[in-house]
Amino acid sequence: MRGFPEYFTIWHIAGHYALRAMAFLVLAFLILPILVIIPLSFNAEPFFTFTQGMLALDPEAYSLRWYSEILNDQKWTLAIWNSFVIGIAAAILATVLGTVAAVGLASPWMPFKRIITALLLSPMIVPLIIIAAGMFFFYTSFGLVGTYPGLIIAHAALGVPFVIITVTATLTGFDRTLFSAGLSLGASPIKVFWDVVIPLIRPGVISGGLFAFVTSFDEVVLVLFLAGPEQRTIPRQMFSGLREQINPTILAVATLLVVVSIALLVTLEFLRRRSERLRGTG
Amino acid sequence: MADTMAANPGKRDSGLASEDARNAAKEVRARRMRAFLFVVPLLVFITFAFVAPIATMLFRSAYNPTVAELVPASLDTLKEWDGVDRPSDAALTQFAIDLKRLANDRTSGRLAEEINRFMPGTSSVVKSTARKLRRVEDAELQQSGVDLLIEANEAWANPQVWRALQEAGRTYTSSYYLTALDLETAPDGTIQQRDTKIYLKLYGKTLWMALIITVLTLILGYPLAFYMAHSSTARANFLMVFVLLPFWTSLLVRTTAWIALLQTNGVVNSTLIALGLTRDPLEMLYTQFSTIIAMTHILLPFMILPLYSVMRGIDPSYMRAAMSMGSRPIPAFLRIYLPMSLPGLSAGALLVFIISVGYYITPALVGGTDGQMISNIIAFHMQQSNNWELAAALGSLLLFLIIALYWLYDRFVGAGNIKLG
Questions:
Q1: Which residues on B lie below 8 Å from A104 (Cβ)?
Q2: Does residue B50 sit in the same domain as residue B91?
Q3: What residues of B are in contact with residue A34 (Cβ under 8 Å)?
Q4: What string of DSSP letters covers A28-59?
Q5: Does B303 fall in a domain?
């Protein structure tokens, strides 16, 4: 136990332990609901709760049947495929446009900076149901509803603010004279952008892209309104599963998604450390 | 030269040759242009993909040309009408002719649906009359359209039906906004409140639920953020994983988790029964309670992250100084620490409140009937009742609310301070 300052009374110390207890209760509240679905997904019975056999750690009570169900159900395999195709395409679109724009926005010469930034960040603020309503009206007139391009464009718009924020954050430590140096040595602006700017801001670009991918990967409201049966994604499939017939296949999918988010978390942490190292602040 | 000029545009050297000044100005313009060009592709993209759709929706909430396009001639003859008695015979005859045409084009159903919004119950009147008029000769309609119309359904003698048609025939209308605010136009043209408040109640409930969720995330988030901010860096980083993992986990996964926990035969009920705390399972899922608890769980990281980053920057020696000089912990906390943590607190609270006001998925999945929020009724009007205009009006009101909240956020917190990860 660490020592407490001399002026601490018994109440200070009691308060200290009460705070610690409260903090751990909140952490438990945050993490337990997510952890609880992992063992449940191995349930041999179609229940959402622990069976007697599971509590007794009977191997018979556990099975992989819900995982094999995912692989054997064409709806789920299509949904997994769609989620990755739409997510990756939307992330690439958002990252390319967002990175180029962030470089412009970081320039001290940028006109109307405040209003343009607000406009570009607004997809993050407007509730999804409003975006969905607007896009549904508008995209119908371009024949984009029920198509892959429609969803990719919609999801890219949602991902743009994250790319702007992460890339702008990396650019704040960026020495702009490097750009002028490249130009003065005779390189074209595009070459300077590609060979000088991009390598330096790469961690921000990659994490922006990851944010954009996750945004699309996790998004369901726009998919509900804009996708046809052919474009159903994992969250969309989970949504109808939860509404129509609940079975532990959803828990198995959820467990796989938790694994994906752990991988993402690790990647982002790695990128953050790398970025700090590159900028010399870590 | 141009560089120093441009860097200090306010400090023009009076002795400078005018040509230099012009060159400098040109250089500034060129640089501004170059910076702007970088943003153009994204600006075009966002305008098409996002801004135009929202603008269309705003427009749509006040624009409804359907009826005006279906029966233009009838609406024209109705212009002469005083609005009190039955409209003129000419108007009725014209409408009979129009309705016959619609019946044969199979578009009378759309007219019925539109008028019905202004006067519930008229849908069947329009549809049955259309069926009866379909086979009648045009010449006969010209002759005795009035009698045929009233014979088909005596509701056509009622001026109220014609007022509904007139209302529905307005291309630009505030009626959807009135409906969205539980107002209606009285027969004499004044705006009055409806007897049953549907939407205002729902807005009230949405704001109330968002407030409860914000307060809950604050009560849970503040102590944890405080504890983490006063731990060693290694420990804080380790604990941060437990905050970030839920943050990064799919929304659907977290909602699924709460369904698994709160179901009648779910984990919480099984545990309570096993512990002997209750004999019959509690009905927790599909209630307002389950919506609030699931949303509190989902939005808690949005409260913790800004709080933590602000608290980490508060020098602990202020509190120590106050307490070493004899202040008791609670006054010291309230008068020193709390005001210093206020930026994080207001950022987190506004963020959680803004996000929860527009929430759709979680209430839709775990809310049952009494946990529904304003987003859910917008979705209902788009998907089930097909009343897009009302959905657009409700959505526009929600959008104005969000913009007002965001303006507050920008004023007190600064939108540029949003950080991720």
A1: 35-39
A2: no
A3: 245-246, 249, 253-254, 257
A4: HHHHHHHHHHHHHTTBSSS-SS--HHHHTT-G
A5: yes
Within-domain flag for B10: yes
Please tell me the total count of domains within chain B.
3
Contact B304, B224 (CB under 8 A): yes
Q: Which domain holds residue B21?
A: 2-60
B38 within some domain: yes
B contact test, residue of A83, A99, A138 with most B CBs within 10 A = A138
CA-nearest residue to B418 within chain A is A165
Whether residues B153 and B105 share a domain: the answer is: yes
pLDDT at A179: 81
CA-based R_g, chain A, Å: 24
At B221 the pLDDT is 96
Give me the architecture of the A68-279 domain, per CATH: Orthogonal Bundle (1.10)
Residue of B nearest to A208 (CA): B420
In a domain, B220, yes or no: yes
Kindly report, residue by residue over B98-131, the tens digit of the pLDDT.
Answer: 888 888 888 888 888 888 888 888 888 888 888 8
> Which of B346, B325, B349 has its CA nearest to residue B336?
B325
B55 and B106 assigned to the same domain: no
State pLDDT tens for residues A206-240: 989 999 999 999 999 999 999 999 999 999 999 99
ipTM: 0.89
CA distance A61 to A47: 11
Residues of A in contact with B38 (CB under 8 A): 100-101, 103-105, 107
Q: Which residues of A touch B260 (CB under 8 A)?
A: 36-37, 40, 48-49, 251
Amino acid at B50: F
